[in-house]
């Protein structure tokens, strides 16, 4: 190796020299590229010569250093054995050192790792001490979100943003938290708004139950107060009807006892709106929006939605007027709505104000009044109208207890009262018609004292002369009189039911009852009587009985006034109360019946006159009055006998009217334009009929006429008869015996009659 090294060194030295000598050969190289003739061959020859020179120099150099090289190799071979031994020793030592250092290295590495871990742990602990509160608060936030404690969650967010997150804002997870907080706020707003919508839907569904509970509590309180008041006035109505007052007294005691028992049973069951509906969503939503600074937005939204619900609640069903349940549900929903608003007003700050509720109530009240006016006008059943009134009173009392003004509702009740009276009048009109149709229009027979007491217990009848008579006997009025009297009292009771609980004084109630009763008498009963009188099947006997009945009903009006005064506890002496117009009503009916009697008598006379069959050409008279006239007189006699129960003037007027109408009808026969001639026999027959009429008038068919007053009805016929006889006596004997009187004489008689008329 050493020889080789020396040789290589020498070669390098020679190359440097060759390089320097090569410079001398540059022209030769250049000549090769200059395209000189045989330049390449000469170059190659020179190159070969140069190579041979170098080889000789190398060989000389190797020969010169060969011995040194051999010596070096020999020394190197000697060292080789020691080197191998040393290598083995070094290798063994290295192996043993490596084996011994592995455990140290492992422990050192473990120590390094532990120290790194310790340093990292210390760093982590320090950072975690900063981050843990943030994470705990965020975890708390999540937990609050899960359990729907949104208001607390917002407070936690506020603490995170203002206190905790700024300390660790350099960490990525904090940035994520910061980015998530606005989203969580929006989520809370959406969730709370969703809960609010569910709450609004819930109270819309449960408002009728809330209102029903509130109205029930108000009604129980009112019933309790009324029962106490009735207990303090147990003699209420005793002077009116003893049996009825005793029943009412016992009924009041039972009602009061039952009221106390019910109050004891339900004392612990008094429910409020908060018991029926969970208001936490609205509280929570209000707090959340207030914390987020959107309280005004929430208030506007809440009020807008409640106004919409109010319009829905105030919209009634089309068939509400058909049943009382429809009205009850309508009122319950409205009461429930405003009970909720009143609760919100008192438990929140600013969400609902008194101004807002008053405005909402005024709007609702106008709508309610319009709805009730419309639907109550469809009610034709007085019982339904009465129940509606009771519902309105409870409705008004309930809302008044919550501070809402209800004066307009009580004003509406006065309008409904007029409608109620109209429905009562229609109902009682049917009752009166049924009574009149079922009446036999004959005096009431009583067989014994018990039956007599039953009748006078229903109708205030007094007749000392009749009391002296023994049983069996007959009362002058028919069955319809006590029934009408009872129905009038029932009407007063029915009218009183509506007047109760209207917060009116006894004087006003008394006045209302008298006005209603006057309407019943002057309009309903009067109309029924007028229609009854005008019915074709009502004969003279029935008309006579109707006059008698109206007389007794007229006398009973003062008892009706006392009855009203007793049930209202108003004295007629100390207070200027209205009077009943029954006197004029029954007088008008009686006058109508009297006029109908006169008309029917005249019609009956006309019927008899129509069957009159005079033979105006007869030669001789029958020697007695005509058969139709005798039947007519017999009919009049029997009819006037029935008139004995009528007032004297009525019977006298009827008799005079009948005689005058008979006289007029007989004269009309002579005034008939179709009658051209008449025989002496016919005149004699007609004279016999006139004489029979005069005899009837002189027989005094109806007592009370003075002198010949009734006979004056036939004075015209008497004058006609006298004139005819005188005229015939002036005729020649030959003409007097002719079969027919000339038309000229008949014409003269007619002129005379017309002058008399």
From TrEMBL:
One of its GO terms (cellular component) is plasma membrane. The keyword Transport applies. Coiled coil: none annotated. Residues 409-720 form the Exocyst complex subunit EXOC6/Sec15 C-terminal domain. Component of the exocyst complex involved in the docking of exocytic vesicles with fusion sites on the plasma membrane. It holds the Pfam family Sec15_C. Residues 46-215 form the Exocyst complex component EXOC6/Sec15 N-terminal domain. Keywords: Exocytosis, Transport. This is Exocyst complex component. Belongs to the SEC15 family. GO terms for biological process: Golgi to plasma membrane transport; intracellular protein transport; vesicle tethering involved in exocytosis.
């Amino acid at each position: 190796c050493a020889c080789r090294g020396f040789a290589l060194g020498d070669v390098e030295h020679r190359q440097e020299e060759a390089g320097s000598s090569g410079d001398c050969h540059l022209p030769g190289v250049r000549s090769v590229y200059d395209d000189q003739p045989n330049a390449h061959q000469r170059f190659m020859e020179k190159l070969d010569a140069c190579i041979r020179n170098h080889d000789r120099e190398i060989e000389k150099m190797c020969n010169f250093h060969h011995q040194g090289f051999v010596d070096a190799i020999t020394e190197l071979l000697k060292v080789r054995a020691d080197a191998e031994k040393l290598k083995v020793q070094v290798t063994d030592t290295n192996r043993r050192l490596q084996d011994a250092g592995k455990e140290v290295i492992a422990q050192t590495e473990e120590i390094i790792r532990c120290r790194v871990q310790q340093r990292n742990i210390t760093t982590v602990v320090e950072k975690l001490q900063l981050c843990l509160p943030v994470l705990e608060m965020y975890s708390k936030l999540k937990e609050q979100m899960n359990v729907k404690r949104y208001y607390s969650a917002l407070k936690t967010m506020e603490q995170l943003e203002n206190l905790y997150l700024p300390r660790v804002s350099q960490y990525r997870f904090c940035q994520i938290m910061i980015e998530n907080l606005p989203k969580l706020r929006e989520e809370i707003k959406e969730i709370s708004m969703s809960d609010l919508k569910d709450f609004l839907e819930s109270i819309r569904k449960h408002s009728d139950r809330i209102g029903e509970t509130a109205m029930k509590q108000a009604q129980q309180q009112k019933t309790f107060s009324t029962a106490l008041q009735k207990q303090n006035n147990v003699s209420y109505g005793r002077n009116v009807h003893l049996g009825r007052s005793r029943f009412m007294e016992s009924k009041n005691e039972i009602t009061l006892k039952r009221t106390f028992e019910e109050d004891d049973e339900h004392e612990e069951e008094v429910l409020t709106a908060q018991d029926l509906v969970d208001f936490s969503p609205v509280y929570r939503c209000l707090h959340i929006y207030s914390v987020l600074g959107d309280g005004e937005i929430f208030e506007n939204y809440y009020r807008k939605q409640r106004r919409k619900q109010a319009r829905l609640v105030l919209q009634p069903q089309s068939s509400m007027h058909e049943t009382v349940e429809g009205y009850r549900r309508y009122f319950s929903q409205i009461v429930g709505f405003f009970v909720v608003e009143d609760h919100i007003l008192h438990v929140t700050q600013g969400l609902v104000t008194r101004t807002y509720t008053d405005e909402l109530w005024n709007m609702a009240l106008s709508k309610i009044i319009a709805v009730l006016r419309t639907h109550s006008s469809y009610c034709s059943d007085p019982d339904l109208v009465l129940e509606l009134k009771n519902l309105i009173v409870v409705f008004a009392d309930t809302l008044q207890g919550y501070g809402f003004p209800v004066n307009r509702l009580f004003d509406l009740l006065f309008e409904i009262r007029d409608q109620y009276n109209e429905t009562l009048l229609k109902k009682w009109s049917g009752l009166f018609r049924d009574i009149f149709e079922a009446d036999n229009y004959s005096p009431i027979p009583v067989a014994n004292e018990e039956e007599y007491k039953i009748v006078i217990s229903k109708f205030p009848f007094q007749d000392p002369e009749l009391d002296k008579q023994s049983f069996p006997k007959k009362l002058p009025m028919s069955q319809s009189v006590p029934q009408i009297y009872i129905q009038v009292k029932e009407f007063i009771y029915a009218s009183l039911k509506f007047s109760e609980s209207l917060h009116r004084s006894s004087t006003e109630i008394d006045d209302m009852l008298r006005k209603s009763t006057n309407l019943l008498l002057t309009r309903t009963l009067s109309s029924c009587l007028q229609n009854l009188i005008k019915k074709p099947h009502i004969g003279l006997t029935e008309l006579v009985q109707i006059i008698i009945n109206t007389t007794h009903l007229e006398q009973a009006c003062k008892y009706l006034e006392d009855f009203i005064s007793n049930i209202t506890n108003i004295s007629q002496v100390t207070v200027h109360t209205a009077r009943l117009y029954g006197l004029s009503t029954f007088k008008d009916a009686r006058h109508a019946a009297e006029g109908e009697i006169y008309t029917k008598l005249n019609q009956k006379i006309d019927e008899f006159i129509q069957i009159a069959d005079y033979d105006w050409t007869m030669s001789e008279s029958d020697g007695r009055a005509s058969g139709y006239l005798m039947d007519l007189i017999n009919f009049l006699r029997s009819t006037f006998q029935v008139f004995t129960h009528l007032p004297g003037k009525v019977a006298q007027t009827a008799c005079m009217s009948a005689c005058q109408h008979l006289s007029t009808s007989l004269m009309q026969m002579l005034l008939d334009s179709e009658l051209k001639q008449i025989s002496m026999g016919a005149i004699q027959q007609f004279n016999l009929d006139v004489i029979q009429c005069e005899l009837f008038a002189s027989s005094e068919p109806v007592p009370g006429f003075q002198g010949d007053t009734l006979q004056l009805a036939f004075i015209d016929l008497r004058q006609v008869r006298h004139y005819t006889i005188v005229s015939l006596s002036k005729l020649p004997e030959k003409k007097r015996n002719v079969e027919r009187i000339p038309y000229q004489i008949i014409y003269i008689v007619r002129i005379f009659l017309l002058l008399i008329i």
